[in-house]
Amino acid sequence: DMPFKEFADNWYDLNIKNADVSAKTKSDYKGYVYTHIIPYFESYRLCDIHEDDCQRFINLYKGYSKPYVSKLRMTLRRILKRAIKQKLIPDNPAEDVVLPEVPQGKRRPITDEERKLIFETAKTHYAGTMFLTMLYCGLRPIEIRYLKWADIDFENDVLTVTKSKT
């Protein structure tokens, strides 16, 4: 008979609030739980949540970015998985929930014109070397941000990416 709100709040406190994760990750989880998931399910008891309820919840986010909706679904699944481990519910009603129609991100390579502009701008820009390193090595901004001098082997011309997005 445990209210979903009480369980989800406790889940966040025990599993996320003091976890060894970045402040951004904690903030993201807090948003998913307190801005979206709890407000939708707060009138439910854990035992009364069914797959259709979870699917209706996720369907509300049609048109949002795929990563955002996927993280909402993953967070809901994690909360309900914990309820299974505590033997409060027999199975996870969010397990087979499918994502609604969400826009796919479109990436494209830079054009020759854009590449020329980068080369020209890099000559005088304070971060020019950083942009050229990203361009030549295929690094993402987050990857170059975490680079240290120790990651560069000048003798063997090797750059090691130690922290990456994936």
User: Main sheet, how many strands, which sense, barrel?
Assistant: 2 strands, antiparallel
How many distinct beta strands? 2
Instruction: State the helical fraction.
Output: 40-55%
Structural class by SSE content: mainly alpha
User: Strands across the major sheet, in which order?
Assistant: 1-2
The geometry reads as elongated
* Low-pLDDT residue spans: none
Distance between the termini: 40 Å
Order of helices and strands: HHHHHHHEE
Radius of gyration: 22 Å
Task: Work out the helix count.
Answer: 7
> Which percent band covers the strand fraction?
under 5%
Mean pLDDT: 92
Name the assembly state: single chain
Question: What's a quick, concise take on this entry?
Answer:
This protein has 166 residues and is an all-alpha fold. It has helices spanning 4-17, 23-41, 51-59, 66-85, 112-122, 128-137, 141-145; strands at residues 152-153, 158-159. The chain contains 7 helices and 2 strands; from the N terminus they run αααααααββ.
